[in-house]
Each structure stands twice: as structure tokens, then as C-alpha cells.
Amino acid sequence: MGGRERVLDTGGGSEPMAGIAKKTRTTLEMIKWEHSIFALPFALTAVLLAANGLPAWRVLGWILVAMVAARSSAMAFNRWADAELDAANPRTRGRAIPAGLLTRQFVLGFTLAAAAVFVLAAAELNRLTLELAPVVLVVLLGYSYLKRVTRWSHLGLGLALGLAPAAAWIAVRGNLDARILVLTAAVTLWVAGFDVLYACQDYEHDRGTGLHSLPQAHGVTAAFWAARGMHVAMLGLLVWFGRLFDFAVAGWLGVAAVGLLLAYEHSLVSPKDLRRLNAAFFTMNGVIALVFFGFVAADVWVKR
User: Fold this and answer.
1) Contacts 24+ apart (CB under 8 A), 133-138
2) What SS3 state is found at 292?
3) Residue 143 is inside which H or E element, if any?
4) Does the structural domain 36-303 have CATH classification 1.10.357.140?
5) DSSP class of residue 52?
6) Residue 210 in contact with residue 203, Cβ under 8 Å?
7) Residues 261-292 pLDDT 10s
8) Where do the domains of the chain lie?
9) Is 88 in contact with 53 (CB distance < 8 Å)?
């Protein structure tokens, strides 16, 4: 009898742990934590340039905490704000809140907790990062409502990620160098361009519900041309950025690699064939960010 009681106690104790593990997995899936790779390499590029190498480990650590916390807060808030819209869209109704896997209250609490961690990390870096933290949160959280009012919401998402290099520079230096804003503009257009492509999946749904996007406003074909234009402009900004920071061979190879990868990304999809959009959106953009960072890192270290 006592042995059976011990077995039952163990089983009862494992159920709460299993529930916590499941909720953790669901939360990580909700915020797509693995997609931090989009903006993080560009932030680290700014870190290397600002410090002319690696900064103090303490500074680097708090920058990483701030980046992950800010993005987690933004993604969770997006899921909270869009819960009803996601439930009405066949493509997104399987997300955590519409599917009943997480409650809106839990997601809002997670949003606030992640935002608090972000502010804490900003406070640990320097005074300017702390003062600008509320501004960053307004941009990150406010993006979720832009699709309700403007077809240019893609640029709002782009800016949310594009702030990463400028914020990282301020975290290292304690001031803002106008040159890093060129990289902010490049990342903004890069992200906006692939968000335009991603929005093509919801063309019919957005037209029916009154949500705004470039595909909804101008059609899928025109949206593809807009995305191509944004990515060409992004390459031009990277060339300007390279000149401002006096890139050597490795840096220019990084810019060239981004151009080739963008061309390949656009070859994967067309207005009439979106089947490989996830490969273009997720896989290739992660590769682009990492490749650019790798070449610029090599450039910095060679010139030291």
C-alpha cells in the first residue's frame, strides 16, 4: 500500500511539471524565438563596429538579454492583439490563443514580464539606453496595430527590427553615431520587403476583413515589385554603409553575398507560386543576416 502511494505521489508530481514544460514549449513556439536570428546578427554587427572588436562581456551579455526580451515582448503582444484576427484567418487559427493552448491573460502577462526584463537590461547598459527604452517599446508594440490603419505597416515591422543596430551602438558607446542609422534603414527595408512577400499569403483574407497591406491595396504582382524595390534599395544602403565604415575586402564580400542571396530568395517565389515562401522567408533571411555579420566580423578583425 505504501509502495503504491509513493508511485501515485510521483505521478501526481510529474503532471504539473509536464504541464509547465508543455506551456513553455507552446510559449516559445508562439514567440518564434528561433527567429531572433533575423535582427540579432545586425545588432552584433553594430556592436563589433562600435567597440572595434568585442566589447566587455558584461555589455555584450546585457545586449543579448535586451534583444531577446524586446523581441519576445513584441511577438507575444502581437499574438495578444491579433487573437481575434488570427481566429478568423484559416492560416493562423492554429496559433496558441485561438487554438486554446494559451489564454490571453497569460500572453499579456508574458508580454509585460518580457518588457520589464528589457527595461532592466537597458538600465544595466547606460543612461541613454534606459531613457530610450520606452520609445523602443512603443515602436515594437505599436506595430501590431498598423495593419488596421495603413498599407505601409510593413515598414513599421521593418523599423521594429531596424532599431536593433542603432540600439546596440548606443548600448556600447552611450551615444548615437549617424552612420549606424544607414544600417538601420537597410534592415528596415530588408524586413519590410520580405514582410510584403509574406503578406501575399493573406491577400484574399485581408481584402475580406478590411486589413491593410500592400498586396491587399495593389495586388500580389505589384507587391512583389515593391518588395524587389525595397531589397534593391537595401543593397544600395549597404554599399553606402560599407563606404562610411571603410570596408575592406571581407566587408564588400559580405555586401555582395547579401545581393546574391536576395536574388536567390526572390527566385524561390513568384506572384503565381507561393509554395516555397516559408523557405524564402525564414531560412534564407536567417542565412542573409548571419552571412553579413560573418563577413563584417572578419573585416573588423582583419583591420585591428
Assistant:
1) 136/70, 136/163, 136/167, 137/70, 137/73
2) helix
3) helix 127-146
4) yes
5) T
6) no
7) 999 989 988 888 888 887 666 778 889 999 99
8) 36-303
9) no
